[in-house]
Design brief:
InterPro entries: CFA-57. The chain is mostly beta strands and 114 residues long. It has one domain (7-98). The protein has strands spanning 7-13, 16-21, 26-31, 39-45, 56-61, 68-73, 78-82, 97-98. It is globular.
């Protein structure tokens, strides 16, 4: 993100961990075999124009494949992100897609099924 972006969320994933925070910033760290530096910065992705004023409050990576990152904003919007090909993504591009197009959920969830 821009100068002064702050970390608000952290989640583990198969290769390391991911940080999310102000200005829609996502930072990916990967595990190494170096005991002195067990994690290295892999990639920082700045928030797209839609997320630049948005703070990422919570993150989770898909538990079985680490292919998708889901982010919850402080405005209660859900976005997903293609984590599986993060190495090929432009650091300034818009890689987040809304989970629910055209709005977001703000009421109680009464029932859910997978």
């Amino acid at each position: 993100g821009g100068p002064g972006a702050k970390v608000l969320a952290m989640t583990p994933y198969g290769k390391g961990f991911i940080l999310g925070g102000t200005q829609g910033t996502v930072t990916i760290y990967e595990r190494t075999d170096d005991r002195k530096e067990p994690f290295v910065l892999f990639k920082t992705l700045s928030g797209c124009s839609d997320l630049f004023q948005t703070h990422l409050a919570a993150l989770t990576a898909s538990p079985n494949s680490d292919e998708t990152l889901v982010a919850l904003t402080q405005q209660r919007e859900l976005f997903h992100f293609p984590l599986g090909n993060a190495d090929m993504l432009d650091e300034e591009g818009n890689h987040f897609k809304a989970v629910k197009q055209g709005g977001f959920h703000s009421e109680k969830i009464i029932e859910m099924d997978l």
